[in-house]
Each structure stands twice: as structure tokens, then as C-alpha cells.
Amino acid sequence: MKNNGHQKILLKLFFFLTTLVLLDFIIGSLLNYFYFKQKSGFLYRTTYAIEKTTEDVIIFGSSTATHDYYPDIFKERLRLSYYNVGRDGNTILYDYAVLKCMLKRYTPKIVILDFDINEFKKTQEAYDRMTPLLPYYKTHPEIRPIVDLKSPYEKYKLLSKIYPYNSLIVSIFGGNVEYFNIEYFNKRQRKRDMNSDGYFPLISIWRQPKRNDSAFINYQLDGNKIKLYTHFLEDCVSSKTELYVVCSPVFINQNYVSPSITLGKEIAKRYAVNFLDYSKDSTILNAPKLFADMVHLNNEGAKLFSNKLIDKIISDAVKK
């Protein structure tokens, strides 16, 4: 009788686990289908960055990338196509993963890496924000070593088909609303997203005084970020892509020299890469009307800053 009891328990456990695996497969497959069915929105922009870009000029970085580099000026003055693959809140961990996928397909003529003034600061948040890369883990082996940095258990979690999407469900639904016929997200809005070249203008004007900031004078540097930044430079140089590492302007009195900028410059110099620090540029810092907030330029500021950067790119081209 005891053996029968044990067998029943084992049988129930077997069916329970089988049901879990089956549900994981079915739900995960549905989420995967609708994720890659998207044709606009910020999730689709990651798919476009990783799998579809063919543009000549590519902008990498976080929110300062998406708001500070005005596309029409790049296209008109350089006579090159442009796309901005920046993603709010991300770091070099995300940027290098996207670059590796991109270089596997083609070589951009110019890459601009927007470099945060505290880029190498060690934070858990930087690793948590690699979640947007999870849907590409199985199909893009080149990014797996980077995603595995997220946690020691990441490769095992990714055996689940649901896991890559479990924090993206609402966004996936929003990206598919065209197929669910929800009027709030109309076709005009989707068309605007498609035609933005990855740039999102900020219209507001910052009306507060400059803040003194010495909060980040000392912080722990992240060895993984430094290593991937170095690889980013190496890969661009070896592929003969013209690379510019750029610190965009911030409306802050920086009462310190950022250790990230110091180290970023040193590494760039080692590879003969242009490192341009506009974070303390006086012509922009003295014009608060060019900022939307303390760390982002508004649309007019983006135009001025983009022209200034392109002046440098054109000047370098003439010298060659």
C-alpha cells in the first residue's frame, strides 16, 4: 500500500511538472510571437537595432543619446543615413551587445557612443536593465556572454520560454495594439514612431538654476563595464568604423573630475579614438533655454549640439 501511495505522489508530481513545462512553452511561444510581431514602439526599436539597421551613422547610449542628437542635421550635413539605437537608462553593457549583433551584419561608417559622465559606476541597476536583451539570447549567441553577466543563474532562467518576456507583457500588448484594434494607439502615432530615426525630441525649457554636484566624486568602478567599453572601441577600430565617444552637455556645476571620464579618455587615447567631452561646454551651459532638464537637451539644444559635433566630424574628415 505504501508503494502505491508513493507512486501516486510521484505520478502527480510528474503531471504537475509536465503541465508547468507545457504552459511555459505555450505561453512563452505566444509572447515570443507577439513580441516579434511589433512594428513600432521602444521594444521594436531594439529588434530594429539588433537585426535590421543598415544606416551609415549610428548613435549609441542612454536617454542623452535618444534626446540630444538631431537626425535631420546629421543626414543633411553629412549626406549619410542615420539611426539612433540609444535606449533610456541603459549602459555600455547594452550598447556593446547591440554593437556585436550589428557588426555581424554590416559595418556602419560612423558610430557615436554617448558616454555618461558616470558611465563606469558600479550599480546593480545597470545589470537589471539588460532585460531588453533577453528575447534575443537564444537567436544571437554573440550576446550571451554579456547577458550572462546579469546573474550567475541567468542561463538557467533562460531555459524558460516565458522568462525573457515576464517584465515586458504590458509593453508587448501596447506594441501590438494595432492588431487588437485599440483606437488610443492610432496609426498616426505608430507612423511617427517609425519615422523618428530613434530620436525623441524634448520641447520643454529648464527654468531652474544650475545645481552644484559633487555627489559622485568617489564611487566603485565596474570592471565589466570597463572591459566592454574597451571591446566596443576595439571592435569599431578593427572594423574600420569611424568612432566618436561623446559626453553630451549637462546643466550641472561639476565640482569634480569624473573618474569615468578620466578613464574613458585614457582608453580612447590608447586606440586613437576621438573622445569629445562637451559635458562642461560653456557655450551650451550658459544657455539654460537649450535644456529640457539638468541632463537632457531640448529640441533646440539638440540642434545646436548636433551642429557643433558635426563641425568636428567634418573637420576631421578634411584633415585626412
Task: Furnish the topology, listing elements before pairings.
Blueprint: H1 2-37, H2 42-51, E1 57-60, H3 63-68, H4 71-78, E2 82-84, H5 92-105, E3 110-114, H6 124-128, H7 144-147, H8 154-157, H9 169-175, H10 177-180, H11 187-194, E4 211-213, H12 223-238, E5 242-247, E6 252-254, H13 259-270, E7 274-277, H14 282-285, H15 299-319
Parallel strand pairs: 1-2, 1-3, 3-5, 4-6, 5-7
Written description of the protein model:
It contains 15 helices and 7 strands. The chain has 320 residues and is an alpha/beta fold. The protein folds into 2 domains: 26 residues; 282 residues, 3-Layer(aba) Sandwich (Rossmann fold). A 5-stranded parallel beta sheet has the order 2-1-3-5-7, sandwiched between helices. Strands 4-6 form a two-stranded parallel ribbon. About 5% of the residues have low confidence.
